[in-house]
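User: Show me a protein chain along with its predicted structure.
Assistant: Here is one chain, sequence first, then structure tokens.
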Amino acid sequence: MISQPAGFWMRVGAGIANGFFINLPLLVLFAIVTDQFNPDDPIVSFIMFLYFLLTPVFWKGYDVGKKTMGIRIVKKDEGNVHIGNMLMRNVVAGIFYLITFGVGAILSAFFVIFRDDKRAIHDLIAGTYVTKTSPKEMSLHLEN
């Protein structure tokens, strides 16, 4: 059962918050250390990859942007995500978006807008969804 799925604008807000609170400070710090501002630097890209892969696993589905917006990633059965879910969500779905030349990413946006469960393609691949339900609310819901 999918409980309180998060819609398109909440997810966009989380992406903007991640950009402001995580990506930008990382780029500025990296520019100070290396004396060059290069958002495409492989080291910055790798750090961001690890952030998006691991933070939800260790922080009950949240990353900084999602926490800011009060949303989080959970498994379809409403349990906490694990590394396998996040690898499917980030790597496998990323490859799918790449080989479809971004068309898959556009379709994903339409999925979030128009599907009742608000699941994007990466959610379908990973067996996840994004919810407005907190871990505490989820545990109360699962007990009943």
